[in-house]
Amino acid sequence: MALNICWLNDLAKAKDHARQTKKPILLDFFNPQ
Amino acid sequence: MGAVTYPNDKVVKFVDYNFVPVQIEASNTALMNQFKVSWTPTIIVLDADGNEIHRVVGFLAPEEFISTFMVGKGKYYFNAEQHPEAQGMFDEALRDYPDSAAAAEAVFFMGVSRYKMTHDPKPLRASYETLTAKFPGSEWTKRAAPYRLIPN
User: Fold this and answer.
1) Separation CA B72–CA B79 (nearest Å)
2) The domain B9-149: what is its CATH number?
3) pLDDT (tens digit, 9 = 90+) per residue, A12-27?
């Protein structure tokens, strides 16, 4: 299994999705290197 | 986090059920600055309006990750005045991860949430007593210290 990241670098779409699903956002700042 | 915590099956199920997960690369300076992030990993719980509810800096192993963000989800409900749901999350964190670093915060917010729901101050005193007994060195025990003055 792997974590299904809903959105990459797009907080606006995540907010819309959070409103629709009534879930909070888990905003993960990461360094891919 | 990507190598150890995010591939963990329990973490995957927990995040999928409870959150809308978003990853922001450190090169995204606009969002790094907006949220005043200066180190990665930094993980923030936001409500749908973008209000910050909970923040953690640094690596979390799978069990600490789940317990930490159970408390974060509880605080999301707490901020929305959904106290039964908030207490459910704090209770779950305390039941499943009683020795985690997040457990003391769960005890603190459980007391506050019960007080806000009932206006009875006794749960605040009870949270102080639990914190003193189980987590004497925790910052949450210090923050609850004034509740020792509440009569039993």
Assistant:
1) 11
2) 1.25.40.10
3) 999 999 999 999 999 9
* pLDDT digits 0-9 by tens, B98-117: 999 999 999 999 999 999 99
Q: Cα dihedral angle (A19, A20, A21, A24), rounded to 10 degrees?
A: -10
Domain extent listing, chain B: 9-149
What's the pTM?
0.93
Lay out the sheet containing A25-30: strands in order across: A7-8, B20-25, A25-30, B42-46, B52-57
Residue B1 touches chain A, beta carbons under 8 Å: yes
Asked if the C-beta of B58 comes within 8 angstroms of chain A's C-beta atoms, the answer is: no
CA B6, CA B39: separation in Å to the nearest integer? 19
